[in-house]
């Protein structure tokens, strides 16, 4: 199941994210920071302008910034979409919610810009009212020069940036969930000797589970089947055009790879891919893949107790009957008889 203590540091590789965050800030002209569900910063501030930097360095004023980040994130969660609002200094901010299994764990906050559309700005919500404290007002007056230097964007530009960051966050969450699921499935499988605890899957989408299943299948197959090095003397010699397809086939043993998909991977047409493949390998694509899978099946029959149906599924055959037919075509016996004889 999705762990209750899954936090932002587990969800995002913060070191890699900060590099991306810096680049996004430069391109979009908005400041970006990741905060937890309480509004506390989790990353550094990328592109933070002088005005906001000075405000956040002021202990009295920084409290308002944290309240804005917290309330903005919660509003984004309620809407389940980017929330564009005015901070306590009438500056545009954007909250992008990060939600896992219905739980709000943080947000990507962006903004620190002024709107060129004054009429639209007037219609946006100011979720935290400005401080009436005299000392705070004096601090703000002293920073007017920096306030005037804030970047100016149109509302349409702000919306486009918000939607882009929202899509990016959803992608990161999806990828992180799949990696987390694969890790949990692997640990559970090893611990329980291939018995997967069904509670591991709770909270994940069908897409998460399907992708994790494919990754686990490949991991299991590669654990039993020695990888053929494409550079050794037994390896098939192909030109650089076909190499991406050959490598993909070896690394994705559990998939039912299609000629059309491999041709796209090699950036050539299916017809040219087919002709080139036959010329380089001496056999057509379908026969080549079938023979490889039968070789891998032989390893599994010799080294594991996997059922014939399981081997068929793991190697991406559409059904066990077809697998048995192809196996007998190349080996002269059924998988059952092959295992019986090789283990005698």
Structural notes for this entry:
This protein has 344 residues and is α+β, with helices and mostly antiparallel strands. Helix content is 58%, strand content 10%. Strands 1, 2, 3, 4 and 5 form a five-stranded mixed beta sheet that branches. A hairpin with a 2-residue loop joins β3 and β4 (103-115). α8 crosses α9 (206-224), α11 packs across α12 and α13 crosses α16 (335-342). The protein starts with 7 loop residues before the first helix and ends with a helix. The model is unreliable at 1-5, 189-204 and 227-235 (pLDDT under 50).
- Kindly provide the radius of gyration, computed on alpha-carbon positions and rounded to a whole number of angstroms: 28 Å
Shape: elongated
DSSP helical segment count? 16
The overall average pLDDT, rounded, is 78
Structural class: alpha+beta
Any idea how many domains?
A: 2
Name of the top-level CATH class of the largest domain: Alpha Beta
> What summary fits the major beta sheet?
5 strands, mixed
Fraction in beta strands: 5-15%
User: How widely separated are the two ends?
Assistant: 43 Å
> Would you identify the CATH architecture of the largest domain?
2-Layer Sandwich
Overall number of strands: 5
Task: Classify the fold: give the CATH topology of the largest domain.
Answer: Beta-Lactamase
Instruction: Report the order of strands and helices.
Output: HHEHHEEEHHHEHHHHHHHHH
Instruction: State the helical fraction.
Output: 55-70%
Given as residue ranges, the uncertain stretches (5+ residues, pLDDT < 50) are 1-5, 189-204, 227-235
Keywords: DNA-binding, Transcription, Transcription regulation
Domain HTH araC/xylS-type: 243-341
GO molecular function: DNA-binding transcription factor activity; sequence-specific DNA binding
Protein name: Transcriptional regulator, AraC family
């Amino acid at each position: 199941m999705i762990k209750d203590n899954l936090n932002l540091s587990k969800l995002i590789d913060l070191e890699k994210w900060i590099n991306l965050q810096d680049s996004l800030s430069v391109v979009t002209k908005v400041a970006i920071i990741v905060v937890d569900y309480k509004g506390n910063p989790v990353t550094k501030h990328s592109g933070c302008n002088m005005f906001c930097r000075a405000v956040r360095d002021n202990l009295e004023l920084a409290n308002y910034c944290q309240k804005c980040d917290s309330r903005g994130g919660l509003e984004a969660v309620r809407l389940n979409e980017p929330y564009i609002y005015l901070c306590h200094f009438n500056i545009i901010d954007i909250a992008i919610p990060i939600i896992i299994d219905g739980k709000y764990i943080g947000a990507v906050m962006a903004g620190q810009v002024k709107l060129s559309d004054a009429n639209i700005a007037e219609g946006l919500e100011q979720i935290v009212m400005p401080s009436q404290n005299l000392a705070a007002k004096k601090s703000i007056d002293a920073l007017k020069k920096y306030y005037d230097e804030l970047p100016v964007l149109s509302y349409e530009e702000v919306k486009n940036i918000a939607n882009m960051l929202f899509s990016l966050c959803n992608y990161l969450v999806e990828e992180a969930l799949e990696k987390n699921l694969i890790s949990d499935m692997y640990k559970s499988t090893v611990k329980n000797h291939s018995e997967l605890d069904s509670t591991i899957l709770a909270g994940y989408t069908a897409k998460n589970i399907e992708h994790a299943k494919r990754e686990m299948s490949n991991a299991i197959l590669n654990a039993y089947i020695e990888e053929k090095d494409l550079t050794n003397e037994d390896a098939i010699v192909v030109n650089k055009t076909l190499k991406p397809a050959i490598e993909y086939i070896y690394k994705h043993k559990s998939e039912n790879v299609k000629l059309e998909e491999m041709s796209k991977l090699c950036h050539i047409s299916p017809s040219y891919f087919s002709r080139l493949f036959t010329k380089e390998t001496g056999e057509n694509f379908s026969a080549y893949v079938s023979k490889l899978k039968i070789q891998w099946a032989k390893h599994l029959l010799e080294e594991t107790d996997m059922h014939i149906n399981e081997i068929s599924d793991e190697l991406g055959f559409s059904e066990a009957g077809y697998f048995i037919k192809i196996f007998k075509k190349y080996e002269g016996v059924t998988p059952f008889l092959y295992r019986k004889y090789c283990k005698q």
